[in-house]
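Exercise 7b. Backbone tokens:
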């Protein structure tokens, strides 16, 4: 079995996905989140909220790409963040 395009999800469930499928999944998540936030009267048109939301969704896309060994511009930043978060967690133990 070729595992080059396999993403591991919790509970050891594996799915095959292409970059296009990942993009579609993330786009669907964005649509759902935007609707839920709007229904709950979150001001998604606030510039700061919009920037943070876009960053969060693009981070999710980058994480999924990492599972497919596809480069994404946010990988370096997310790797640095993960190191920082791990060090901070280690200090609080």
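Sequence design result:
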């Amino acid at each position: 079995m070729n595992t080059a395009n396999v993403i591991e999800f919790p509970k050891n469930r594996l799915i095959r996905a292409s970059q296009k499928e990942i993009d579609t999944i993330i786009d669907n998540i964005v649509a759902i989140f935007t609707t839920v936030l709007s229904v709950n009267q979150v001001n998604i048109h606030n510039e700061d909220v919009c920037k943070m939301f876009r960053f969060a969704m693009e981070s999710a896309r980058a994480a999924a790409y990492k599972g497919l060994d596809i480069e994404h511009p946010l990988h370096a930043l997310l790797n640095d963040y993960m190191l920082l978060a791990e060090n901070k967690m280690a200090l609080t133990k």
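Instructor comment: The radius of gyration is 16 Å. The chain has a mean pLDDT of 83.
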